[in-house]
Design brief:
single chain, 5-stranded mixed beta sheet, 3 helices
């Protein structure tokens, strides 16, 4: 799986949320993850991946598919509702 980042979003995920590139990308390799389509923003769909990172943290990663790559838009720790949703799906 190939990834693509906007430089501003990469910097924001790290400085604001403490989530680096490698940790955010590791969620996609986790056996413990779920995907949801969240909305369409012309001309592409945006998705949410809830998954456990290589640092064993539950992350919320918003992404889209662009030019055959996964373009990560944001990465942060999962909020209370996302944690509940993840626990419901994984039990």
């Amino acid at each position: 799986m190939q990834f693509d980042w906007d430089e501003g979003n990469k910097h924001k995920s790290l400085t604001k949320h403490g989530i680096g590139v490698e940790e955010a990308e590791s969620v996609f390799a986790s056996p413990f993850k779920f995907y949801y389509r969240i909305h369409q923003r012309a001309p592409e769909f945006r998705y949410l991946c809830l998954g456990v990172s290589k640092r064993n943290r539950l992350l919320s990663v918003v992404f889209c598919f662009r030019k055959g790559k996964v373009r990560i838009i944001s990465a942060r720790k999962a909020n209370k509702n996302e944690k509940r949703r993840f626990e419901e799906k994984s039990s």
